[in-house]
Amino acid sequence: MKQIASGKKTLTLLILILLTALTEGKPGRADSNKPQRLSIPCIMPKMDCDPHQVPKFFDDDDKIIGGKVTEPGTTPWLVSLKDSHYDDPVHFCGGTVLSHAWVLTSASCVAGYSYPYTYLQVVAGEYDLDEVEGWEQIKKVTRKEVHPEYDFVTQNNDVALLRVFPWFLYNERVAPLPLPPPMHQSGHPHFAFTHDNEMGLIAGWGRTAEVSEISHLVLMAYAPILSTEDCIGAYGEAITDSMMCAGNLTHGGLDPCQGDWGGGLKTREGYLLGVSSWGTGCGRPGLPAVYTNVQRVRSWICSEVTCATCEFSDEAKRICND
Where in this chain does the record put each Peptidase S1 domain (predicted)? Predict the structure, then answer.
């Protein structure tokens, strides 16, 4: 009997050893020495990927495509759009504060949003996506207006307005970025209507390369604003009247990427000139980022905020510089 019992113990030990050998190294086993992976929404058509399989890695990478980490409060107009359908709301796009109540973003960020827009969060004063610093203002979206001539296929007129509640409170971390003057308003003393080769400021939390993590800190870069001829030269007939380009044609490396879309392009005069819309890859030479030209959609923006804020006429005037 002792020999049988001993044999059973030996067999049991061998089975345990075999099971351990088979399970070690299998996919899905946690490894505390490796960065943990989360998924962020990939709801925009330009992303061309599974909506919930874009990886975010928590590490100390502080690079963006041609950009650098900003100091807190450097870009107070920048907001994070988050999907609150998850237990922990997840960043997926940027946007720009226009006023106490309105944010401008890319239509492709929100037009195809698969949940009710009440799940959208707009977070102003955000700096570090991984930390709560106390400056964040988390707002609900009470109204979503997509440009009526937005084209899902061509990305023409790729802009949308989000009305938030409660309203933003301005401080050193939250402030609006004004629209440019109307294109027909000649002789404006503080605005250049030809921005070719001027450096525009872009900022966001997007990927630092085409296949990489998004940044948990706000990053910014200065990108050359290109002429219409150079923009068409890069993309041909894909460029419509509502579009403009910015980036380094020769060397690349100065672009927004996934997670940055919807953010603004700021001019040296301090105006919102573009809304980041699309591109081929991120930061590739000869293929600059494409933006919606805010001057081309300014009249639509003003008509929407004027109509929706009839009881707040001063709010509409502040947005449209009237």
Answer: 64-306
